[in-house]
Design goal:
This protein is of the alpha/beta class. Helices cover 35% and strands 19% of the residues. The chain has one domain (2-317): Uncharacterised protein PF12979, DUF3863 (TIM Barrel), CATH 3.20.20.510. The strands form four sheets. Strands 1, 2, 3, 6, 7, 10, 11, 14 and 15 form a nine-stranded mixed sheet that branches. The protein has a two-stranded antiparallel sheet with strand order 4-5. The chain has a two-stranded antiparallel sheet with strand order 8-9. Bound molecules: zinc ion (ZN).
Length: 320
């Protein structure tokens, strides 16, 4: 089995963005430690919108330099760096010592006119290629919002992006900001597509590495929310910002079975082992797992460490 541990390297986009140190630098150093000397390679999907926007403010140059140095260190350590696009950064401003972000109406690339989609993708990709001095071919959409792909295809082709990892099979979320429906996606761990991320096309231009999905019981989410309140030291995220609203999703998952990603974030890390067993039973040859440095907790780091230590000799931890 090839296991792809992928991390979206970013701040938060809710009422408070959180700090670069707590959301990005420190938790990424913790992830580096877990992979050290184990032939374990990660893929970091870097939210380039933040970097491009931060370049505009002299007072952010110090933290920006630390982030840039860490991105270079990812490569030096044998990890892969790819493109993650949260286009609402286009509208973000740094004022009075904090980011003001308004995601409404421009959270998704699709919310922008066609020419802006190409411009944003090209600007961000070029920035990342210049920083890393390497070619970028991989992409993950902010908030998994990559549909309808036919509307984004031009921006992919223009930039030579041929690999995507935005799909979470079976996952569905329609809210004010999110618009995704992966219920018809192929139940495969890797496939090719052309105009629709949910439709496999043999010899299609693009390769999808869908994020593995898992069926979570309501009790899982009662524990997730409950433990965070009862034992924040172990179960609270290291990242110090706030999420944007997922419009009623919390209520829904607390009372119904639901499909969601296999993830290293917080309490989700509990299911890494069970999800791997499931992938093996399904005969999959690869498994893509999502995580966010900002979503690390003491608990999740302990679980991820165990997951890596148990499996790094049995399976390959590869980068996309
Ligand atoms: Zn993201």
């Amino acid at each position: 089995m090839k296991i792809y541990l992928t991390f979206d390297y970013e701040l938060f986009f809710g009422a408070t963005s959180g700090s670069v140190e707590k959301c990005m630098l420190q938790p990424t150093r913790d992830l580096f430690d877990l992979a050290e000397n184990k032939n374990v390679h990660y893929t970091f999907f870097v939210d380039v919108g933040y970097l491009v926007q931060a370049e505009k403010y002299a007072e952010l140059s110090e933290e920006l330099n630390l982030v840039k140095a860490q991105i270079k260190e990812m490569l030096k350590r044998g990890h892969s760096v790819q493109l993650h696009v949260h286009p609402h950064w286009e509208k973000a401003t740094w004022t009075e010592g904090k980011w003001t972000m308004n995601v409404q109406g421009h959270y998704k690339l699709i919310d922008f006119p066609t020419e802006d989609r190409v411009r944003i993708m090209t600007t961000y990709k070029n920035y990342l290629e210049a920083l890393t001095t390497s070619k970028i071919h991989g992409f993950r959409a902010g908030g998994w919002c990559i549909q309808p792909f036919s509307e984004l295809k031009e921006a992919f082709v223009a930039n030579g992006i041929t690999i995507d990892s935005s799909v979470v099979a079976d996952f569905y979320m329609q809210t004010e900001n999110y618009n995704l429906d992966f219920r018809s996606a192929p139940r495969k761990s890797k496939y090719q597509f052309e105009n629709d991320v949910c439709e496999e096309v043999e010899n299609g231009t693009f390769t999808e590495f869908p994020i593995a999905s898992y069926r979570y019981r309501p009790s899982f989410y009662w524990m997730l929310y409950g433990l965070g309140r009862l034992f924040p030291k172990h179960y609270k995220m290291i990242g110090d910002g706030q999420f944007i609203s997922q419009g009623g999703r919390k209520r829904q998952v607390l009372f119904n079975y639901s499909n969601h990603h296999v993830s290293t974030d917080g309490y989700f890390a509990k299911k890494l082992h069970a999800a791997l067993e499931k992938s093996i039973n399904l005969g999959h040859e690869e498994m893509t797992i999502i995580g966010h440095p900002k979503g690390n907790t003491l608990y999740s780091l302990k679980k991820l460490k165990k997951f890596i230590n148990l499996n790094h000799q049995k399976h390959e931890f590869k980068a996309i």
